[in-house]
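2024-03-11 09:14:02 INFO worker-7 job=invfold-0412 stage=load source=structure_tokens
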């Protein structure tokens, strides 16, 4: 039985896990860095433990310090959230070895799916379609890189084997740019993931990013909770997600869901996971991209349309008290959209905009509107961590209803002291193509100038 959970994270997701613990009558233990000594998640938790200086490598990414805090303060379990140590199989194994419950999948699953090249092979063995790609590129062999690229075909992506969230990913359109791009991606991968291995994968020009939420029982069975459309992205990172995916044919969804379940069942996967696919926007042919062995930022979209609380279910499963669920018991109602609010400057390539939140007002939550937030007015958005400060989630009977509710909610957001992307999100959601559900992963880049101009026009009229 789990009586207390240490949350190995910060910000919005730490606050989210604290709320789930509170709903289950479980005590929450927060960890915080020096930069977060006044942070919201520290204030909300039942207990809070300082774990080091502001840089993540000396605090949130220091697995020894985090585990020491869990043991010293009587935690029964550790919830890693997303990012930081959430997909670190060694940390998961160390947590279990210390006698604590790990609120996540088995470390073996994390290892298998965390290595993107190995995950591709598992997908092939499970009968899941994959894009043409290469093996791991040998170090210091530009000649071998060129041969591999020729076999894959241009345009292509250079991807870090241990990558995620768009980190270590680079596009190459022609052979002359290959060597410099591979070397750049290797350097980023070495810094971010401690090893520099990369591989090549065919680039789909008009691609949609569609993912399937799965939940496994750890004994070989799993269910899916439908799909999320995540094609609105900048710098290979999502900014808007929704469910259902607009225009997705039912038979395609069924094939995607069964492919995701095949992977989850093969691993005897435990808890929440997401199988991500790249889809050709014209043909709706889909290909395995990766599996995230953790809760996703966009999990609230699925919660809104299914009524499931994924974080509570994670905790219950780890504690041995989860109730078996059949696929027929999971139903979807209406449509939901999530917008990620970032402290960033859309006019300057979406660069982070740290600073004090001199004003920070969100609309009131109510029927059809949920706010997941990790900051308050007066807080400082530091340069040390991801600049996402809030998520707005709207739910309606139809996609049009959810879109209208989101525009109404964004119009009520008031932020001063840092640059932010709220006006950009409003312009994006108002674009006729987006209203029609016609979006792909390159949409924001192609229409960025138009969207920025729309922001400027709206600002003048306000």
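2024-03-11 09:14:09 INFO worker-7 stage=emit residues=462
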């Amino acid at each position: 039985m789990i009586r207390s959970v240490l949350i190995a994270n910060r910000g919005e997701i730490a606050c989210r896990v604290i709320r789930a613990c509170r709903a289950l009558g479980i005590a929450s233990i927060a960890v915080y860095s020096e930069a977060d000594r006044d942070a919201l998640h520290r204030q909300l938790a039942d207990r809070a433990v300082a774990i080091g200086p502001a840089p993540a490598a000396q605090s949130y990414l220091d697995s020894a310090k985090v585990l020491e805090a869990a043991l010293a303060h009587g935690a029964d379990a550790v919830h890693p959230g997303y990012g930081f140590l959430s997909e670190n199989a060694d940390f998961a194994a160390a947590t279990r070895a210390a006698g604590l419950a790990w609120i996540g999948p088995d470390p073996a699953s994390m290892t298998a799916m965390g290595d993107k090249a190995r995950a591709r092979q598992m997908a092939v063995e499970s009968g899941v379609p994959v894009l043409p790609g290469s093996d791991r590129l040998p170090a210091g062999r530009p000649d071998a890189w060129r041969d591999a690229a020729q076999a894959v075909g241009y345009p292509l992506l250079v991807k870090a084997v241990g990558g995620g969230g768009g980190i270590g990913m680079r596009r190459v359109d022609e052979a002359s740019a290959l060597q410099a791009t591979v070397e750049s991606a290797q350097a980023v991968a070495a810094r971010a993931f401690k090893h520099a291995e990369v591989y090549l994968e065919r680039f789909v020009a008009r691609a949609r990013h569609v993912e399937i939420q799965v939940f496994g029982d750890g004994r070989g069975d799993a269910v899916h909770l439908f799909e999320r459309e995540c094609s609105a992205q900048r710098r290979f990172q999502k900014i808007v997600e929704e469910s259902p995916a607009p225009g997705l044919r039912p038979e395609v969804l069924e094939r995607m869901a069964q492919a995701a379940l095949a992977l989850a069942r093969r691993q005897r996967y435990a808890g929440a996971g997401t199988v991500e696919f790249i889809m050709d926007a014209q043909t709706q042919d889909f290909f395995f991209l990766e599996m995230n062995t953790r809760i996703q930022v966009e999990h609230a979209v699925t919660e809104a349309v299914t009524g499931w609380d994924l974080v509570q279910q994670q905790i219950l499963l780890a504690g041995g008290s989860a109730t078996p669920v059949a696929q027929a018991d999971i139903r979807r109602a209406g449509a939901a959209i999530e917008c990620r609010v970032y402290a960033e400057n859309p006019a300057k390539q979406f660069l982070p905009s740290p600073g004090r939140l001199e004003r920070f007002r969100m609309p009131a939550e109510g029927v059809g509107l949920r706010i997941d937030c990790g900051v308050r007015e007066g807080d400082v958005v530091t340069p040390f961590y991801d600049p996402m400060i809030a998520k707005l989630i709207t739910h309606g009977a139809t996609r049009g209803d959810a879109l209208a509710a989101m525009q109404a909610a964004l119009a009520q957001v008031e932020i001063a002291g840092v640059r932010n992307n709220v006006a950009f999100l409003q312009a994006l959601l108002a674009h006729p193509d987006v209203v029609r559900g016609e979006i792909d992963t390159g949409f924001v880049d192609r229409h960025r100038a138009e969207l920025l101009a729309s922001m400027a026009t709206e600002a003048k009229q306000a």
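2024-03-11 09:14:09 INFO worker-7 stage=report msg="The mean pLDDT is 94."
2024-03-11 09:14:10 INFO worker-7 job finished
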